Amino acid sequence: RLNNLHFSSVRISCFSYFSKTNYKLHLFVYNLLTGEMRVTAKLWRPLSSKPNPMSITSDYIGPPDKESNLRPYVRHIPPNETSLEKRLRESRIMVEEWNHEFWSRHNKRFYEEKEEFLKLHKTADDSEVSADKLSEFYKSFLDKNHKIHLLYNISWYCKNFDLLILATQVNIHNFLLKLKKKR
Questions:
Q1: 157 and 95 in one domain?
Q2: Structural domain boundaries, residue 157
Q3: How many domains does the structure of the chain reveal?
Q4: How far, in Å, CA of 41 to CA of 62, rounded?
C-alpha cells in the first residue's frame, strides 16, 4: 500500500531528467521498494526539461527514447576542460549517437516484422496470438539477425575499449597535474 505511493514518484522521475548521482539514488530507492523495504524521503528532484550542458555540474540522464529505448545523457561541460577531456566527452557522445541509431533501426525493424507476423498468424476468431507462436517469431528474428547482433557487439566492445583508453589517459593526466600542484 505504501509502496504504491513511492512507485508513483519513481514513475514520475523516470519521465524527467535527473543527475547521474540522483539516478543512482533513484535506483537504490527502487531496489529498496521492490524488496518490500520502506523509504520515507524522496531522494531525487526531477527536472521538467533538458538541462543546459554549460550550466550543470554533472552528467544528467534523460527519459528513455521512444525509438531506441535508451536513456540519453546530457554531458556536463566543465569550464576548464582540457583537450583530452573534450576528446573523451565528444567520443562518448559519438558512441551514444551510434548506439541510439543502431537500436532505433533495430527496434523499428523488430516491431514491423512482429506486426507482420501477428497479421499472418491471427486466428479466425480474432483472438490473441499464442505465446508459443510468438516465441517462434522471437527465435526466428534472433536467428535472422544473429550476424547483425554479432557485428554490433564487436563494434560496441571496440568503441568501449577506445573510450576506456581515453578515460585512462584523462585520469593519468589529472593525476600527474595533482602531483605537480603538490610540489
A1: yes
A2: 78-183
A3: 2
A4: 22
What is this structure's pTM? Answer: 0.70
Query: For residue 8, what pLDDT is reported?
Result: 30
Sequence-distant (6+) residues with CB within 8 A of 43 are: 22, 25, 26, 28, 29
Q: What is the dihedral of CA 20, 76, 153, 101, to 10 degrees?
A: 110
Q: How far apart are the first and last CA of the chain?
A: 59
pLDDT tens, residue by residue, 70-128: 999 889 898 899 999 999 999 999 999 999 999 999 999 999 999 999 988 886 666 78
Residue 17 DSSP class? B
Which tens digit of pLDDT belongs to each residue from 45-80? 566 677 787 778 888 888 899 999 999 988 989 889
How far apart (Å, rounded) are the C-alpha atoms in residues 113 and 145?
A: 12
